[in-house]
Amino acid sequence: MEKQHKRFLLMMSAIVPLSMLTVFILVLEYYPEHWQPVEAEIQTSKIVSTRPGTLQWSLMANVSYLVDGKTYTRKRLEVFRDSEQDVTVKEQASWPAGRKLQIYYNPFAPQSVSLVADGGREAFAVMSAILTPLGLVFLLLLYFAFMRPVSSDSST
pTM of the prediction? Predict the structure, then answer.
C-alpha cells in the first residue's frame, strides 16, 4: 500500500469517529431536551398498514390537547404497533374515543408531540451519528469531483 493511501486511511480513522461524536453532541445540544407533559384526549383511532412490503399494523389515534390555553390536534399519532392485524384490532378496544393519555410536546413547537418524554431526541442523535460517515463520503466525492486539476490544452 502506498504511503499516501496509508496516510489517508489513518486520517479517516480519526476523522470519522470524531465527526460522529461531534454530530451526536450537537444534536443533543440543539434538539429540545425537556418536552413538557400534557394530557391528551383521543378523538378517534383507526388501524392502518404502515409497512406495505412487510406486514406491520399500527393503531393511529387523532388526539387533542391544550397548551397555554390553545387547543392543538395531532392526527395519526401511533399509539400501538404489531405485525399481527388481529392483535392490533384487539388493542384498539383499549383506545376508545374519550380516553385520556399523557403525551409530551415540544415547548418551542407545541404542535410537535411524542409518546416519549424526550421526543425521540436520543434516537435522533444516534441515527444522525450513524449517518455521519455517509455525509463524509458524499463530501469527499464532491471534493474529488470539483477539486481535480484542470488539464490545460496547449494545442489551441
Answer: 0.62
